[in-house]
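Retro notes, item 3 of 5
We never archived the inputs for the SN-glycerol-3-phosphate complex last cycle. Fixing that now. Sequence and ligand:
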Amino acid sequence: MKIFLDTANLDQIKEAVSWGIIDGVTTNPTLCSREKENFNDLIKKICDVVPGPVSVECVESHAEEIVKEARKHCEIAENVIVKIPICVEGLKATRRLSDEGIHVNTTLVFSPTQALLAAKAGSRYVSPFVGRLDDISSDGMALVEQLVPIFNNYGFETEIIVASIRHPMHVVEAALMGADIATLPFNSLEKLVKHPLTDRGIERFLDDWEKVKKAMSQKEK
Ligand code: G3P
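Structure as it came back at the time:
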């Protein structure tokens, strides 16, 4: 499974990339609004450090305008892909952009029919927002469970980005279901590494290693 970082924070991106496990980055207007930097400069810097696709959101509402905005985003760097919310105008724009070879990530997906139409329009990725479904007492991961066989049934190349991840179990379930990608905030990524038994085990090994060193130095005397 590919792991994307869901942030526009350059420090977090650099840190996560240094771990050697990051395959891409997803941004959105909310995440960009938290950074105090010119939008284009920020995206360029992110693209320079990420070894994979960087999703950049389009905010225009009409297909013609979305297409122009998307092309502009793609001029920033080679690894920019455009994020377009699912809607009729978004589908029209997606078809045109994908025919031009521009990769689209269809975002704000909350139903299997939205994802199916995005895939038919040529979208390279679809992003079901699992946490936001959980927030309204719906089952976010149940949507992913439907999308995996739907895409497999028809051989769609569209990849599923499990987004709006809130905790490590979302990632575990996504991996068990065979979702292609999980995109998660940095604090959730950190939680994937941590285990209290690992921390305790490392501590004990270090204590015992001190004993080994002490015994060796006593022998030498
Ligand atoms: O990638 C989508 C993500 O940014 C949305 O997350 O936590 O705002 O639902 P959240």
